[in-house]
Amino acid sequence: MEIKPENFKGLTEVDEYISNGLYKYTTGRFSNYETAKMLQAEIRDLGYEDAFIIAFNGNKRLDLREALGMEKK
Q1: pTM of the predicted structure, to 2 decimals
Q2: For residue range 8-67, what is the model confidence (pLDDT) as tens digits?
Q3: Sign of torsion, CA 25 33 39 50?
Q4: What's the rounded Cα separation, in Å, for the pair 38 and 58?
Q5: Residue 73: is its pLDDT beyond 70?
Q6: 36 and which of 3, 28, 30, 57 could share a cystine (Cβ 3.0–4.6 Å)?
């Protein structure tokens, strides 16, 4: 899918990555979990009810609990 706001209900800053052969789309970059939770609620209100929060360190995806532990340091 072409990454442009019209294809994502107006969302900007959408990125794409491939995981286990599937295309996955992300938006938003935060170093704070609470801010990410607020964006998650907004995205769910747009109709993406299954939106969830993921964490990356560079290009490596992290377990969310691990990332939350890093946030507390």
Answers
A1: 0.78
A2: 999 989 999 888 999 999 999 888 899 999 999 999 999 999 999 999 888 888 888 888
A3: positive
A4: 22
A5: no
A6: 30
Q: Which residues contact 10 (CB under 8 A, 6 or more apart)?
A: 46
- The letter for the amino acid at 22 is L
- Which residue do the tokens 């009810």 mark? 49
> CB within 8 A of 26, min separation 6: which ones?
14, 15, 16, 17, 54
**Residue 33 corresponds to which tokens in the numbers above?**
């979990």
- Separation of alpha carbons 70 and 73, rounded Å: 5
- Residue 16 Cα distances to 1, 41, 66, 73, angstroms: 9, 20, 23, 29
* Both structure tokens of 57: 């360190």
